Amino acid sequence: xxxxxxxxxxxxxxxxxxxxxxxxxxxxxxxxxxxxxxxxxxxxxxxxxxxxxxxxxxxxxxxxxxxxxxxxxxxxxxxxxxxxxxxxxxxxxxxxxxxxxxxxxxxxxxxxxxxxxxxxxxxxxxxxxxxxxxxxxxxxxxxxxxxxxxxxxxxxxxxxxxxxxxxxxxxxxxxxxxxxxxxxxxxxxxxxxxxxxxxxxxxxxxxxxxxxxxxxxxxxxxxxxxxxxxxxxxxxxxxxxxxxxxxxxxxxxxxxxxxxxxxxxxxxxxxxxxxxxxxxxxxxxxxxxxxxxxxxxxxxxxxxxxxxxxxxxxxxxxxxxxxxxxxxxxxxxxxxxxxxxxxxxxxxxxxxxx
Length: 354
Ligand code: ATP
Ligand code: MG
Description:
52% of the residues lie in helices and 6% in strands. By secondary structure, the protein is mainly α. It folds into 2 domains: 5-185 and 296-346, HUPs (Rossmann fold), CATH 3.40.50.620; 199-294, Tyrosyl-Transfer RNA Synthetase (Orthogonal Bundle), CATH 1.10.240. The strands form 2 sheets. Strands 1-2-3 form a 3-stranded parallel β-sheet. It has a two-stranded parallel ribbon with strand order 4-5. α9 links the parallel β4 and β5. α4 packs across α8 (128-137), α10 runs antiparallel to α13 (268-294) and α11 crosses α13 (268-294). The longest helix has 30 residues, at 297-326. The chain is globular, with a radius of gyration of 22 Å. The two termini are 38 Å apart. The chain binds adenosine-5'-triphosphate (ATP) and magnesium ion (MG). The site of adenosine-5'-triphosphate has 20 residues, from α1. It is found in: Cytoplasm. ATP binds at residues 11-13, 19-20, 147-149, 187, 196-200. Belongs to the class-I aminoacyl-tRNA synthetase family. Its EC number is 6.1.1.2. It comes from Thermaerobacter subterraneus DSM 13965.
């Protein structure tokens, strides 16, 4: 039997950080043996927030290197750049015609981005979730490994699929499920620990996987700990540092410092020093592999060319089914005749009426 498909992607908006790794890429790597995995560099999504076109391609290349250095294996997984496959936007348009605007206005990330960039509110930002739904269902992916912030987008994708099926009287797509790692679903920012670590909060707020040791140390030493008066509960900044220490430090290091915290004798500088050392140690192999890949541009090109080629076969098949169901033209070779073996779709009665 064919393996189930996995799809996930990251925006080429800067260096990937601990949140991206722990929330998403770590599961990507684990899933490679059991699923047919497609991992994308989603540059169309990167266009939805202000960006510099001159930097986009370099960012795509850096993100590809990050994927590979982290352990995404092009022998087992398909790696793509979203904009190289026009089927993503083609399907997004079609899905957009079945998605009520009111569903999109409710999406929390949309509201956040509107607040972040009040002068950059556009149709593409509103329809972000439709494009993301298209990315996933284009490959009929069933599992989507992501951080917690993406759950509303996955819920939206399932609603869009159900509505598409209902309106066109077909069943083409599986309903995609998010795969969220409970203990690493949400890593917090170092500078604003009540917000999630994000590329767009700036380099001081995050540890990039590629950060050199002295930078890791500097950022951890300057991380926000207690913001208000000491209370009963551990502050979000300290909790985040302990969380990272649990993931990257040794069991003894964690137990020791945690006991000091409970006894009220912990000096934050010790927590930070231990964490910085642990991170520098853990990220060393990644930095090494990254440096090797930087020197092998021919390999990088081969990986993407092959990935895009393999993805295109799947994408075209899905689009043929979708376009047939919608009464659209496939290409110049089949203008009026419906492809053999397709029942006339049930019609799109009630489309757009909620
Ligand atoms: P941007 O600020 O440009 O949106 P980002 O850091 O939020 O960047 P995305 O490309 O939006 O990164 O997300 C890539 C993946 O990383 C998604 O699956 C997302 O859920 C996950 N992710 C992002 N930030 C975190 C975090 N702080 N903790 C856990 N997972 C995260
Ligand atoms: Mg994001």
